Amino acid sequence: MIHPSRFAAHLDPLLTPSTVLQLQKTPRLQERLAALLLGSELVSNGSNRGRDVLLGHDPRRASLLAGSIWHARSVLNLVSKHDLALLIENIGAEAHLCAIRHLSSAVATEAVVDPEQLSQRIEHDGYACLGAWLEQASELDRARVLLCLPVGTAAEQPAAEHHEAAGQLLSLVMAQLAAERRPA
What we know:
Blueprint: H1 17-25, H2 30-38, H3 40-45, H4 59-70, H5 72-77, H6 81-91, H7 93-101, H8 115-134, H9 139-147, H10 160-181
Helix pairs in contact: 4-7, 4-8, 4-10, 6-7, 6-8, 8-10
């Protein structure tokens, strides 16, 4: 689903969020909405039948997993029940477990002890890694993923440090997401 903030510049600002959601769900409008947001040339040159680079998974989820690995050392250091509960409430139990599982792949060396600040950094660095990783994808695949994210995330302009770590972190994330797709 396209994030509602992506429509803001293209549709009437008086439309309610529920109306925007209904527009997105209308099958006969899908091609027009895609052309409006991606540009008609990009949509006509790209194939809508291509393999989804995130295997159908939510980009925010993938970025939280990447960000949790990035900050795995800090995640592991949060031992207070209150702090840990707050962190898990913000990033989810799955991202917490992913950080612990991939501690050896942690990138950040500076410890963050405040759970709110750690949650924000996990989200920021996760989005940035996702954005850096997407730069290796086709223009259409990158645009498709970015449309699902709110306007202004770090995925839009990742820093050099994110480019360096993105391949390794996202390969771990994609392996986890791909494992979910395999039949038991």
